[in-house]
Amino acid sequence: MNSKRKVYFDNAASTPMLPEVLEKMRHTMQEAYGNPSSIHYYGRHARSIIEDARKTVAQSLKASIGEIFFTSGGTEANNMALLCAVRDLGIQRIISSPLEHHCVLHTLQYLTDQNIRVEYLHTDQKGHPSVEHLTQLLSATSESTLVSLMHANNEVGTITDLMKISEVCREYGAFLHSDTVQTIGHVPIDLTDLYIHFITGSAHKFHGPKGTGFLYINGDISIKPMIHGGAQERNMRAGTENIAGIAGMATALRAASKHLDAHETHLMMMKRHLMEGLRTQLSDVQFNGDQQQSLSTILSVTFPASQKSELLLFNLDIEGISASGGSACASGTQVQSHVLAHLRPDDPGTTIRFSFSPMNNIDEIDYLINRLKKVLS
Ligand SMILES: Cc1ncc(COP(=O)(O)O)c(C=O)c1O
Q: What torsion, rounded to 10 degrees, do the Cα atoms 174, 178, 184, 186 define?
């Protein structure tokens, strides 16, 4: 890496780890090397770290300890929820949205190939799935149904009204899964009053490590293991646990929960400043998603088509600014985003997702506005 200024605005793809997370993980790897399934001191010590972490995750969601299962991240947790629901709950039909993350959409495609009926909700221009359409589909048949709708979209940031979706599902007796990967650690979630069966989290989206996440399974339903082997995770997911990752995730979630309000204020201030700067200093920019109901961490901007905007992401990178063109999880090479193709069909403009963390500051936003002006002029 050269010494040029570097600014990281791709936090929806992954976040830097907090110093206390790194320290917790280093310490855990050094001290807690016993196998958590062993009954001697070292095993019990490692086990206690995992169970403390489970308690932290459960408390932050107001769930029971027995409802939290650690996984290798959001992808595994979402796969597990959908596949286990079909296998163990007698699901005949899944209702979802075309704007879900690929780890949900591709699992739904797999299930379609296995003769499970999948229906996709209409969405509005801002990325909200239609509650009327959901109601209509649920009232049309009495088939056993799972509704799978993400809490917040990872490309445009629109937040779904999970409470409303949950009420409709309760009314029609449908099971509900929500991919909460972009909201855990960012938006308060209280499961006490929510009628919901599965939610998922991924540590690297809230300043924890990659390769660690969790699945919440409502205690009222009974699910069988998806990975077979040892009795880890109360027989639900075999394999020696990623103790350092789990400990790091709990540390990150504790920090996120503690500072949630202060972070939200700081993030909103930066996001508004960027919107204002882009509106007043560049022409014809458009913001994607629902700005009234959106993550403070994401701003998706469409720039008018031009030779310069085509190379925008590349030129920003040269200026030291890291952002994302589509969903980084799906790319590496730039592929057309299914979310933008759906929300902005045939739009020739260039869309960039800027995503923030509390570690960013207003000076970096000003730098971004300044560089955008330079690159586009
Ligand atoms: C909404 C959403 N769901 C799931 C995932 C996958 O999570 P993980 O990277 O932990 O597999 C991502 C990652 O970008 C995401 O944004």
A: -100
Give the pLDDT confidence of 43-69 residue by residue, as tens digits. 999 999 999 999 999 999 999 999 999
Pocket of ligand 1 (CB under 6 A): 73-75, 78, 101, 103, 150, 154, 179, 181-182, 202, 213, 329
- Mutational test site, ligand 1, from 102, 148, 202, max ligand atoms within 8 Å of CB: 202
The verdict on pTM exceeding 0.85 is yes
Q: Could you give the domains of the chain?
A: 7-16+259-376 (3.90.1150.10), 19-258 (3.40.640.10)
CB under 8 Å to 259, separation ≥6 — which residues?
358
The Cα-based distances of 202 to 12, 212, 216, 352 in angstroms read 11, 6, 12, 23
Q: Give me the residue label for tokens 């309760």.
A: 170
Question: Mind telling me the catalytic residues?
Answer: 329
